[in-house]
Here is the input.
Amino acid sequence: MSCDENCRKPINRQAHCSVCHKTFTGATWFDMHRIGGKCVEVAGLEGRDGLWATPESHATRARWAKHLRELRAQKGTGEQ
Here is the structure.
C-alpha cells in the first residue's frame, strides 16, 4: 500500500512504515514495531508532530529546533 499526502515523509535517519504509516525517529524503533511481519505498539513510544519516539527523544528534538531558530534569528535569516 502506498502512502498518501497525509503521511509524514521521513528525513535523515527517520523510518516510515508503509503498512501503518507511522514515521519513527530512527530505524531501531521502526524495527521494534515490526514483529512477524505485523505492526505492533512499542511500549514507551509516543507520537508527536507525526513522529514516533520516546518522550526523551522528543524533548531533545524540541531543544535543538529551538536552538536552531535562535541561531537563525541572530544571523537575521528569518528562516523557520
Q: What stands out?
A: DSSP finds two helices and six strands in the chain. The CA atoms of residues 32 and 42 lie 7 Å apart.
